[in-house]
Sequence to fold (291 residues):
Amino acid sequence: MAMPPASAPQASLEVKGREAVLAALTSPDLIVPPAPTAPSLASLGWLRARVARFHSGAEHVRSRSLLTTALERADPDRLREVARRRTAELLEGATEVDLMAVAYAVPAAALAEVLGLGDPGGDVAVVARLYLTGPADGESTVDEDAAVARLVDAAGGTVDEETAAVVALLVQAYGATAALIGNAFLGGGDVDRTVHDDPPTLATRRLATVDTSVDGIHIGAGEVVWVDLASADLTFGAGPHACPGADQAKALARGVLDALAGATLAEDTVEYLPVRNVKAPTRLRVRLPHG
Fold:
């Protein structure tokens, strides 16, 4: 996941602790910073402007229903098996591998297969770079726009909100699921325990639409606040924007880890991405048991 570009709303305050975090995530006065509207079809701007992630209120409810409808096609048991198979295919013949490369590649491919889509290739990674934050002022999105267009084609080619929801599923599963896989491997392979003890998603942002307060912290209209999910044991969030795909994300992680049974870490030092909102190893060289 990339560092937020300069144009992303910057948070100056922080909310921590379970009660305060729950209050922030459920407050109607605090919304996810919205994406600007974009006239260009099948582009990064179009995708961000059409999906539930960047909407609030009635528009969010409508967009989220499209997301959950798409998720109903993604049976967790099948996702786990497809992720296991795809990981095994990638590992065939190898003696060592960067687990994080696998962790980024497999979940989106497995999810696309289960949803009956074309192979997304590397396009999900390209779109994920700026999906959460949008581009910095003046930053080109030519590559991201082209990748979104190819993902739309893989999803059937119809440029509408239903297709945007499906593409968003692939992109939103990318960084956090990879982080969950890496952290779970380091924690002995227990995905559920990792969600609570070493969560991949650490924080999220909310924008105050009016002057408000959370747990005694005054937040002025227009201010952006960091919401510390890890301090509240809420890695999948809560409230209207709670992750609807938690079961699918855990199933994908388990599938990848199933194929890595018996693998061991091949280096002593683990470094992490230098970002505030996610804990993810930059790489994990692992030695495979048949190597």
